[in-house]
Amino acid sequence: MRNRYRRGVSADPLNRGKPQRSTTSEPPSGSGASAIEVRRSTRRRRTVSAYREGDRTVVLIPARMSEAEEQRWVGVMLDKLAAQENKRVLGDAELSERAARLSDQYFDGLARPSSVRWVTNQNTRWGSCTPAEGSIRLSHRLQGMPEYVVDYVLVHELAHLLVPGHGPRFWQLLDAYPRTERARGYLEGVVAADRLPHLPAAHDE
Questions:
Q1: Averaged over 1-24, what is the pLDDT?
Q2: Which of 68, 84, 129, 141 makes an SS bond possible with 136, Cβ 3.0 to 4.6 Å?
Q3: Residue 79 and residue 186: Cα distance in Å, rounded?
Q4: Same domain, yes or no: 142 and 57
């Protein structure tokens, strides 16, 4: 039986319109993501919304939107959905387990932090580590953000346990994480939207 109500996100709650044309794309093999269906509507003027429907994600957009705009908005709405669904905050123990899995996946388990925890006193950077102690600290502002963003910050700090500085070797290690650029773009957008003090580029973190 189909649920009467659907949980989703919208860039504007007005003017939902009826879908006129739709396209469906499959996620990359092995990504674990659901299929994405884009539905265009002539009645939809400016709003963009998205919701989960079974094993797929439906994104509703205006019919006149260009292909480039469609791709951009699909990415934005997927991030919004991911943030909505990631409200449960990982505890420090779960964060440590996540860091261990990421180390195994990207660094052959060579980065072994002694502790990984949330902190509330980091308002000008997303993460930090002390290589001599093996400790990693993540800003509480990351809580509720998409998982790939949290993972990027964890991978960044794990790489510092192997290479303390930001030389070529460090960036070579970080290149192993495939969503680095997308995660950095997301964090830069958060900074701009919240009008936080200017943060240094990722290589200065």
A1: 42
A2: 129
A3: 9
A4: no
